[in-house]
């Protein structure tokens, strides 16, 4: 099966960006760990990051024509603002898990709401980079159940 990992705006800064909130690992390190995990699970994983909303939307659309079975997405701040990313995900009807490194519910009020959560298969937040690992594991179980 094929899984797509999407990371949204500012996640390219992981490792240096507010490490007390987001951890010391870089995105490249997280992606490499996930690629190794995917190999073990027999999953083909593609990893992408963009700071641009339209780029994330285009990749979500493309996922349908490239037969992606499952999407893992940390939409960054677009979680709290983007009806367009929500519409793209419902439009392609590919199941997805929403991931946040930090516990968005323990932070500013404006982070408590996500436009994606109610249409997600599941949401993982507050567990740092481990959240990506759990999400890939959950995706694999969903795909083989
Ligand atoms: C985040 C949480 C968002 O509120 C924030 O805008 C991010 C990262 C997280 O992974 O904790 O960019 O999605």
UniProtKB/TrEMBL annotation:
The record marks 17 as: Transition state stabilizer. Substrate binds at residues 74, 80, 87, 101-102, 111. Pathway: Metabolic intermediate biosynthesis; chorismate biosynthesis; chorismate from D-erythrose 4-phosphate and phosphoenolpyruvate: step 3/7. Keywords: Amino-acid biosynthesis, Aromatic amino acid biosynthesis, Lyase. Coiled coil: none annotated. InterPro entries: DHquinase_II, DHquinase_II_CS, DHquinase_II_sf. It comes from the Bacteria. The active site is at 22 (proton acceptor), 100 (proton donor). One of its GO terms (biological process) is chorismate biosynthetic process. It catalyses: 3-dehydroquinate = 3-dehydroshikimate + H2O. One of its GO terms (molecular function) is 3-dehydroquinate dehydratase activity. Pfam families: DHquinase_II. It is an enzyme of class 4 (lyase). Its EC number is 4.2.1.10. Homododecamer. Catalyzes a trans-dehydration via an enolate intermediate. This is 3-dehydroquinate dehydratase.
